[in-house]
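Subject: Sanity check before I submit

Could someone independently write out the structure tokens for this chain? I want to compare against mine line by line before I put it in a report. The sequence has 97 residues.
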Amino acid sequence: MPTYITLMNLTDQGIRNIKDAPKRTEAAIKAIEAAGGKVIGSYATMGQYDYVWIIEGPSDEAAMLQLLSTGMKGNVRTTTLKAFTKEEFAEIIKKLP
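---
Independent answer below. Compare away.
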């Protein structure tokens, strides 16, 4: 399954409702799992980003759907990176001329 690293920042709404964050996190994990994905790691962080998640998903389209759904709720803004394992990267490199 493809791997994604999602960096999140709380919106004004998200910080106003921060006490609901654990409940929102559990709901998001359940939605990802229901869509065929898996949350590898979910971290609250200090610094430039408020949360960092590592997620496996069945496809880019499924990941996009989850990201849009999350964004529509208005509590976080996301930046998502598609990640490649070292093995996947090695296979890509082999195709170079």
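---
OP: Matches mine. For the report I'm noting this point. The CA atoms of residues 39 and 55 lie 4 Å apart.
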